[in-house]
Predict the structure.
Amino acid sequence: MKVTITLKDNSKIHVRFLQKIDEEKLFRYFTQLSIETKSRFGPHFFDKDTVKHICNEQGADTTRYIALDDKDDLIAYMLVKKGMNDEERHRLLQHNIAFDETLFCSFAPSVTDAWQSSGLGTAMYEAIENDIRSNTPFRFIILWGGVQATNDRAVRYYEKHAFKHAGAFWYDGKDNYDMIKSL
């Protein structure tokens, strides 16, 4: 996937898959995230070893998308994983939600602080959803690790994109929501 999206301020952003050559860009991206932004993203750590592993692991179960600005700086990083993790699977069963896991993918977005509220998250999500619809058998998206209940901006973002509340859970000392979208 390689697309150019235009934001509401007319800036052109390039969205593509993460590649091995992006290791330094991804590490720089992670170091620029605020403590709050890092605390809202849960799929992995932000250290150099994790970045090296991510860029060198081209596994079939997780697709990593990045957005680059006109200076070729990485400004957003979003993951789509085939299926769901054990915690999500267990919670869906607790919420009495029946599912065929082969039709699910997990989604985890992050946008650098300077680009939050710019429309980048929405434009990039729409490009990713189009890619999912066109190239995968997935018919449902679940939030990878849920969303923190106190993260009002993120909850509104997901609701705007037709994610539905599937249940609440307590994790890491915080209230969280599982949210699912039907494609």
Remarks:
- The domain at 2-182 is CATH 3.40.630.30 (Aminopeptidase).
